[in-house]
Amino acid sequence: MGTRGSGPILFPPGLRQSVLATGLGCCLAAPASALVPYVYIPGEEELEASALSIAQAAAQVLQIGYLEDAASLADLSVRLAPANVQSWLLLAAARLRNRDSAAAKEALAQAKLLDTDNAGIWFAEGSLAMASDDFPHAEALIRRGLELDPENANAYFDLGNALFLQARGEEALAAFQEASAKQEDLWPAINNEGLVLYEADQPEAAMERWRQAIAINDQVAEPVLALAAALYNQGDQSQVTIGMAIRALDQESDYAEEAFQESQLWGEKLRAATRRLFMDSRLQSALERALSMVNLRRLEQDSTPLLPEEDSTLPQSP
């Protein structure tokens, strides 16, 4: 046994000092630095590809009516690739449809800095002028766009609307006909041909256009209700005609209000025919139902809490 207070000698004295020194070194050394995670930074081409994918998603979301979501996606797209004209145009379209004309105008200004010869920019500026009720300016902008893209059916449709709102019916009809000639399934253009013809005292020709529009798309309310009103005014007050009107009101309740009809370019003669149709007692339940839906939507909009005002400043190019 060893002496009291002494322990077993596990290491020779020299080695023991070496081990102690090593241990102290481990204890007294500065702590190791934390591991820094590796962050991958995509290159310019990858950012542009991502921006394109996001822009395509924004376009799809815009088509189904999710305007704020579409604007958010388009905004992200222009942040990733600020030199992409189409992303700016999508952002402008989303803002315009969300009634934010100032933001739409800023987005279009950015797009125009990138490409003054892009027809889509001129068409979008035409839509902005239409939203501001500046129809002569809208006409000029759309015509400039058509010089760059003369085969654009939708632009001819917009031109027809601008002309019709300036009470230039014959020119509007020609523009709508040009639109439907370039795109045979463009039912809104064919429908609007009917609107012009009805105001020009050509009800038979108008009804033929509305039948054509319904044949292309039988799920839309406007040509169905217009045809029902014209038939009723011509003396066809059958249950079939009434059924068409009920179906149209169930599909789009806003048409129960004359102010909405007028906003859709329905002229005085067609609105008068619709008023006569709506006086039929067989339509009262459908009318009450439609008006209730309209009022309910208004109440929901009025009761929606206001969000803090969003910064409408658009991302700037670096």
UniProtKB/TrEMBL annotation:
TPR repeats: 119-152, 153-186
Predominant place of localization: membrane
Keyword Membrane recorded: yes
Gene3D superfamilies attached to this UniProt entry: Tetratricopeptide repeat domain
Organism domain of life: Bacteria
The protein's name: Uncharacterized protein
Membrane topology qualifier: Single-pass membrane protein
A GO molecular-function descriptor: mitochondrion targeting sequence binding
Keywords: Membrane, Repeat, TPR repeat, Transmembrane, Transmembrane helix
A cellular component annotation (GO) from this entry: membrane
GO biological process, any: protein import into mitochondrial matrix
PROSITE patterns hit by this protein: TPR
Alphabetical list of PANTHER family matching this protein: MITOCHONDRIAL IMPORT RECEPTOR SUBUNIT TOM70
Pfam families noted in UniProt: TPR_19 (PF14559)
Family from the record: Belongs to the Tom70 family.
Compartments in which it is found: Membrane
